[in-house]
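ugh ok fine here u go
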Amino acid sequence: MANTSELACTYAALILHDDGIEITAEKISKLVKAANITVESYWPSLFAKLCQKKNIDDLIMNVGASGDAAAPVSANVLAAAQAAPAAEETKNKKEEVKEESEDDMVFGLFD
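structure:
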């Protein structure tokens, strides 16, 4: 039922936005009732608050992108995850270079 409620409120908010009407909980509820869909009373107010805080056009244009709040966290986690193996590789390469250079020096002395 929650998925239906979320979709109904999403579509109602998009309809209101497309028509240039202010998005409020009352208007979302009215559209949802007109579509004969029953939703929990908190869904319209949640969507109305979201629509007041976010630019709907930006949300529509960034459908495939991660959300605003999650993006910095995801980017930081991704960067840290990529940096850790890179740092290990760099460390391993330095150790390998040291080992090779020491071996070369010792080997070169006995030629």
